[in-house]
Amino acid sequence: MNDPKVLLVDDEKDFVCTLAERLELRDIKVDVAFNGTEAIEKIEKHQPQLVVLDLLMPGMPGLDVLRWIEKRHPDTEVIVLTGHGEQECKDEALRLGADCCLLKPISIEKLIDKMMKALTSSKPKNQ
Questions:
Q1: d(CA 45, CA 96)
Q2: Who wins on pLDDT, 125 or 87?
Q3: CA–CA dist 63, 100 (Å, integer)
Q4: What angle do CA 21, 26, 55 make, to 5 degrees?
């Protein structure tokens, strides 16, 4: 399979690029998107196993992307990141189907650990 296993969606380009490099060193195929619209296009095209999704981005917010993923690709694992820590936003993300919600700043190693667990334990959500 040539399609990426992981899609990183965040408007913080330095963070996304650094994380992508670290994952590729672990032989994980990665793609990146810097906004919600671009994320949806890439999910439709490649259907990644895991999406790491920032909640607050310009344009289409992460919660809207999450709603779309859960409607169109419910088996896709989603890890939500937020730098703002609003509990109701985190609760809404989990209610909408995110597998977990993590606060920024987060160490890249901790995030990669969560991602590896999601990639290895991935299973259909609607069983």
A1: 22
A2: 87
A3: 13
A4: 55
Model confidence band, residue 126 (pLDDT cutoffs 50, 70, 90): very low
The dihedrals phi and psi of 60, each to the nearest 5 degrees, come to -75, 120
User: In the chain, which residue ranges form alpha helices assigned H by DSSP?
Assistant: 13-25, 36-46, 62-72, 87-96, 108-120
The CA distances from residue 41 to 26, 33, 68, in Å, are 25, 9, 11
Residues 6+ positions from 107 with CB-CB distance below 8 Å: none
Place of tokens 């189907």: 97
DSSP, res 89: H
Whole-angstrom Cα distance, residue 81 to residue 88?
14
- 33-61 residue pLDDT tens: 999 999 999 999 999 999 999 998 989 99
pLDDT of 51 reads 98
- Token look-up 């937020």 returns 82
- In the chain, the domains with their CATH numbers are 6-120 (3.40.50.2300)
Q: Which two tokens stand for residue 45?
A: 């095209």
